[in-house]
TrEMBL record:
InterPro entries: Ald_DH/histidinol_DH, Ald_DH_C, Ald_DH_CS_CYS, Ald_DH_CS_GLU, Ald_DH_N, Aldehyde_DH_dom. It comes from the Eukaryota. This is aldehyde dehydrogenase (NAD(+)). Its EC number is 1.2.1.3. GO terms for molecular function: aldehyde dehydrogenase (NAD+) activity; metal ion binding. PROSITE patterns: ALDEHYDE_DEHYDR_CYS, ALDEHYDE_DEHYDR_GLU. Belongs to the aldehyde dehydrogenase family. The keyword Iron does not apply. The active site is at 254. It holds the Pfam family Aldedh. Keywords: Metal-binding, NAD, Oxidoreductase.
Amino acid sequence: MASRRYPARQLYYDGEPRPSTAKRFFETIDPSTSKPLADVVCASPADVDAAIASASRAFPSWSKTPPAERARVLLRAVALLRARNDQLAAVETHDTGKPLSETSTVDVVTGADVLEYFANLVGGGGLNGETTQLREDAWVYTRKEALGVCAGIGAWNYPIQIALWKSAPCLAAGNTMVYKPSEVTPLHGQFLAELYTEAGLPPGVFNVINGGGDVGSYLTSHPRVAKVSFTGQVSTGQKVASSAAGGMKYVTMELGGKSPLIILPDVDLDIAVDGAMMANFFSTGQVCTNGTRVFVPKSLQADFEKRLLDKMQHVRMGDPTDMSTNFGPVVSAQHLEKVLGYIRHGIEVDKASLLCGGLKKPAAPSASADMGDGYWVQPTVFTNCKDSMRIVQEEIFGPVMCILTYEDVNEAVERANNTQLGLAAGVFTKDLNAAHKTVARLQAGITWVNSWGESPAEMSVGGWKMSGVGVENGRRGIEAWVRNKSTLVDMSGAVATAFSKL
């Protein structure tokens, strides 16, 4: 094989790296240079079977391990994640193209936070059931029991964070997992599996397979899989959920969005502009919760756009490993074409006003900087947009902001809700009463007031409508990984019967 930055990435089950029986490989690419990073082995159906068998063998023992003991193992993994934050962040930067200034402060950090949260939750009695005295001589008690072997399907935009968001509650609850990273950004999978093993996780509790949609489909439809947790686009999520439903599997679906950000008339415009930029250009716009429909009062449009253009100069693209860079390439050549296709449609068909950005490849930030053949796109802002435009209706998943004006807040809310998606929404205002009233009317599962994008471990998050099923994180997040058993105990010494002697 040709020289690569990283050694070939293997499958991982039974507590160690494994070759593929199919002997097939694919490349993972550095988006900033378009150069291959590593060869990744692709799982065959037999390999998926072997990984699931490994997880099945590990389940009885792991599920019976006391929660406090499981928590100790997971907390050792947390310590390792934090000790190796910069190393793992560099892997994510190479694989995703996201700036190191982001991956070193967000991706690994927030994943470790969630693992720590669920370890402490179960270690402190978070899986305890309820006890109810039904009458003097009868009680009802409940137990929360692990589901079994679970499948986790990762997304390419936050690879290690999503892997941890899925595996943390899964493993804490006593389940085992077979995890498939996105084939676009798979580098983290083996690294995480090896770290879990080093922390003391028994063989088979966390397993990794690699491959494309065919591998994921085989995994999620497997009869020995009890639950599927998927993060990705709506159309794929529908297929995964349909397959899982046929097997009566539990599901958690975190899907796409076309989220509204509503700026109320009394707002501090500088704060609103900062929020809108974070909601559109952070992570090069490749965030499912992005607030890409920015509703601005007509009276504030000119001032908002002027301040926005002033602040766009602070978007710094370039070498993603330079800590001063805050804007990287999009993840792949295919995705670059998709994003540019939407920008072209916005200009040529929707006829939206192009405020900044566009189709031209961005220039290097300095004479010494090399943008190479990376997948670079300019941060783009369209204004005077209409609700009927394709760029307003469809998820672009790139750095494209659409500004829409409104005259009345009731109108803005009605238009904001006029979508099949309902992942996130937010309001910027000085009036907190107005903020609470407006947020209460927005049809989305994740909402913010005077902020955008923060998703702490303590906050349960999940989409409404076509944006998903179930929630991740927070106290409710553990419920998605257990099944409840209710038991009624009668101590009266007799059984009430309809068949007594007359």
